[in-house]
Here is the input.
Amino acid sequence: MRFEDYIKNVPDFPIPGIQFKDITTLIADPVAFKAAVDELAQFVRDQKAELVVGPDARGFIVGSAVAYAAHVGFIPVRKPGKLPRETISYDYDLEYGKNTLCMHKDAVKPGQKVVIIDDLLATGGTMDATIRLIEAAGGVVVGLGFLIELVDLNGKSRLKNLPVKTLIQY
Here is the structure.
């Protein structure tokens, strides 16, 4: 399937100069969304992961569907103040600003194998922060999966040579 046929490019969003890749048209199409989820779920199974972690917010959409299809649990990584129990956090830079991610301190058990699933790999900042959270909790990141990779931004260079699965590359 040509997943890129289901992605819309939105220029100058959220700020001038950014070419936002809109996945809402892909997730709105039941055939395309199922095919994308199934392909990423197979990657999760191949990595023998016990959990999928998805960063706020589009990682929730893709990651929870992938976790369900792979028959593993799902853990959300959120922005500050959104999780009700004790959290661990990590501050990082985005390609157009700064952010902080948080995860429940007890969400990942020591030694649990985790695949991180998100919509897009750009500079790798969000993934690096998410990897650090999982490792701080004692988890082991065994792979990362994305609908889209922006190759020119070289985000893979921040990912510790982990296995990466992407469905679309720009």
